[in-house]
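Project standup — Tuesday

K.O.: blocked on the structure for the chain from last sprint. Re-posting the sequence here as requested.
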Amino acid sequence: MQPQPVLTNTNSKPNLYADLTQSATALFEGEPNAIANAANLAALIWHTLPNLNWAGFYLWSGKDLVLGPFQGKVACVRIELGKGVCGTAAAERKTQVVADVHAFPGHIACDPDSRSEIVVPLYLGDRLLGVLDLDSPNPGRFDAEDAKGLEALAQLWIKASDHV
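H.V.: unblocked you, prediction finished:
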């Protein structure tokens, strides 16, 4: 049985992400399966961070990004590299923080209720693994502190998991 997250320092984003990192580390301990770890991380994020309507992974198939473990409403299944916020993050190898998704060129509206989005590209060296994607119904929900915290969680997932 996996340990439940213990969140004690939720009075600031850095403290919240520190607790999330500690909880994710405990969840990943002894489990190298990337899909299982992605599923647990998506659930941990979904149940911990406020004001989300989607949290999950798109995994690289060698051809496009394919829907992976997530929490939230049903989602788009495939995203081309360079398309939308997810495809752009993967292609540019750079976290995308989008305050208003409707103003993002080429935004893919999987959920019309989403107003802001953050996408962290997942790379193991030069190898694209996918992206970690969070959506919110609130405009401007994500900022640089979210990017830093989510990038750290993404790196933890990459290091903890086998990627065959």
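K.O.: great, moving the ticket to review. Helices lie at 13-28, 34-48, 84-92, 144-160. The radius of gyration is 15 Å.
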